[in-house]
Amino acid sequence: MPAYKTLEDVIGATPLVRLQRLPGDEIAQRGNVILGKLEGNNPAGSVKDRPAINMIRRAEERGDIKPGDTLIEATSGNTGIALAMAAAIRGYRMLLIMPEDLSVERAQTMKAFGAELVLTPRSGGMEYARDLAEQMQKDGKGRVLDQFANPDNPAVHYETTGPELWQETGGRITHFVSAMGTTGTITGVSRYLKEQNPAVRIVGAQPSEGSRIPGIRKWPEAYLPKIYDPTTVDELVYVSQADAEHMARRLAREEGLFGGISAAGACWVALQIARTVENATIVFVVCDRGDRYLSTGVFPA
């Protein structure tokens, strides 16, 4: 009998592709290469597939949850979609709490996987959603996996994403750029890459003042993710909403790479770095696909 794969088996091992046109002659002449890690190729369409399945698997192994239980999570979108998929695969009821102003595509996708949504006021943002999730757990309505404090989130990036990047670049990676939201990706990847070569520079993309970029957050101190270790990040670079949205359109039109807004923000940062260094291999995370943002007006109708 053939050893058929399950859906879980094809999470990760995503392609790493080189930007061809956006860098231009200036960056090429410096000997720099810019690479995008296509996490939108995961089954549920984002980098969050990795921690979603890992958080559920590890909780099962510890005996914290069992199929048939109700899981609860506050989400700005991609983690919710990934958890909805993972819950469907492994047999859980999934309650997702999200601000009402997030894109309709995300909400519809979560529902397609069978998740139930609890929408919170836009004014409360993710902070209110997180507080409500904790209260629902206290009220006995289910178990919060808590992507913001769960060590199984960065652990999967240490175990999979980081090694993939090291192998795919033949150990040549010099810079790793990631949007910072939950911070699981940047924390886990940084730990792995720094073990291989402490000189690898880890750069986090943060939103500039007044910018609202899905997937990139600057948290108030009280809500800073507990999994975040600031010692794993060498530099923070601030990107504006306008620059991120413009870069998303350019990526699609000039590279054929249809990514989300946070991915475009990370790409914008990677290009800024590439103008200041030489002979560098710069990798940024393409967190998800652009089709999740069609209703936002970022892309022309």
From TrEMBL:
Q: What is its EC number?
A: 2.5.1.47
Q: Which PROSITE patterns match?
A: CYS_SYNTHASE
Residue sites binding pyridoxal 5'-phosphate per the record: 78, 181-185, 262
Q: In which pathway does it act?
A: Amino-acid biosynthesis; L-cysteine biosynthesis; L-cysteine from L-serine: step 2/2
Residue ranges occupied by any Tryptophan synthase beta chain-like PALP domain in the UniProt entry? 8-288
Gene Ontology molecular functions: cysteine synthase activity
The cofactor required is:
pyridoxal 5'-phosphate
Q: Name one GO biological process term.
A: cysteine biosynthetic process from serine
Reaction equations catalysed:
O-acetyl-L-serine + hydrogen sulfide = L-cysteine + acetate
* Family assignment from sequence similarity: Belongs to the cysteine synthase/cystathionine beta-synthase family.
Q: What is this protein called?
A: Cysteine synthase
The coding gene here is cysM
